[in-house]
Amino acid sequence: MKPHYNTPSAQSCYRATFQGATVCHSWKLIWRSWAPPKVKFFDWLACQDRCWTAERLARRGLQHHPRCLLCDQEPETIGHLMLTCPFTRQTWHEVLS
Ligand SMILES: [Zn+2]
């Protein structure tokens, strides 16, 4: 017996879950780069906000420092650590120059 066409299948339900979602292809840049595997893995975790920053520790109710340990100016988030921390910005400037 053939299924009725209006009956949702597991596949159509799964696809509907992602309807309207933003597709990010940054994983291609990460995994196809020349960087060592441990760097790729860290970058992949950072892109998904899965690194154990103080912000993530706080979300889980775990002990954490209130501010960034590098600059002691702002809360430690992955965005701060990777982009806006003065220490990081100086490091990026020296690496890229
Ligand atoms: Zn900082």
TrEMBL record:
It comes from Aegilops tauschii subsp. strangulata. InterPro entries: RVT-Znf (IPR026960). This is Reverse transcriptase zinc-binding domain-containing protein. Residues 9-92 form the Reverse transcriptase zinc-binding domain. It comes from the Eukaryota.
